[in-house]
Amino acid sequence: MYLRNFGSNFTTPEIYQLNNEIISNLEKAINGEYSAIHCYEKLAQIAPTEEVKMQILEIREDERRHLSAFITTFTNITGQQPSPQLTEDCKETYREGLVTSFIDEQENVDFYLDMADKIQDPMIKEMFKRAAADEQNHAGWFSYFLMTNEKATITRQNAGNFGAKGALNATSLHLVQMLTYALQDEFLAQSRYNDILLNFGYIRTFARIQEAELRHIRLLLPLFDRYQVEVPEDNSKEFITTPATVKEAYAIGVEGEIENIDMYNKFMSLEIPADVRAVFTQLRDASLNHLTAFERGLQRK
Asked: Is residue 1 part of a domain?
C-alpha cells in the first residue's frame, strides 16, 4: 500500500507544539522501519523459493514507503532531519528471520494504532492507521511463510522414512518393510516424472520411464496380495520438488534411480523369498537402464 507524502501539509515547525513522546515514538518508528528494510533484504536472499523472495522484497518496499513518510513527518514537525539507526541484528537463519519478522510486525500494528490514537492531526493519524494495516498484512505473510516452512521441515523429516531413503536409512528390514519401501519408491518415481512432464511438456526419456514405473508398480502389487501385506497409501506427491530446469530434472532422475538401485541391492543382500528376489532383481535392472538414460540426458544439457 502506498502511503501519501504528508510533507506538503506543513509550513513551519511552529505549527505543532513539540510533544516529546510523539517525537520519540516517531524516532522509534523510523529506526524500526530502517532496520526492517535492512533485515528483509537479507531474509529475501535466503528465502527458499523465488516466489517467497519476491514477496519479502515487496514487503520491504512497503517499509521503504513507511520510512519515507515517517521521515517527512518528523522533519516537518521538528525542522530537523532524523538519522535512522539499526536497532536490531538480523537473524542468520530463514526460520529465525521469519519468527522475528512476524513478532515485529504484530508489535508494530499495536504501536502504530496507539500512535494514531494519540495524534490529533487527521493526516498523520491516517498515515499511522495505513501503516498499521500494512504491518498486519505483513504479519499475515510471515505467518504463512512460517507455517509452510514448518510443513516443509516435517516433510523433509518424513522423506527420510519414505521409499528408498527409508529403506537405506533402516537399520533392520523385514519383508513387509521391504515391499512397502519398494512400492513407495516406485510411487515416488512415477509422481516425480509425471510432475516433470506436466511442468516441462513432453520429454521422451521421462515419458517412457514414467510408463515403466507404472509397470513396476503392477509387478509389485501381486506380492502384497501373496504375502498379505497392506498396500501403503500413495502420498508420494508430498515428497517431490519441481525442478527449475530440464537439466535439474535429469539430475533429479539420476539421483532417484541411484537410490532405487541401492535400495534393491540392499534388499537382495538379505534372506528373501525367491519370487520376491526375482521381482526386485527385475526392477533393479530396469532402474540401471533408467539411470543410463538420465545420465545421457544430463550430459546433453
From this structure: no
Pair 35, 142 in one domain: yes
Arithmetic mean of pLDDT, 85-100: 92
- Kindly report which listed range (116-130, 144-158, 255-269) carries the lowest average pLDDT score: 144-158
Do 158 and 232 touch, CB atoms closer than 8 A? no
The verdict on pTM exceeding 0.70 is: no
Residue 97 contacts residue 90 (beta carbons within 8 Å): yes
Considering the domain architecture, whether residues 134 and 179 belong to the same structural domain is answered as no
Is it the case that residue 5 has pLDDT exceeding 50? no
Please give the residue range of the domain that contains residue 57.
7-157
Q: Is residue 71 part of a domain?
A: yes
Return left, alpha or beta for 201; rule: phi > 0 is left, psi -120 to 50 is alpha, else beta.
Answer: left
Q: Are residues 13 and 70 in the same domain?
A: yes
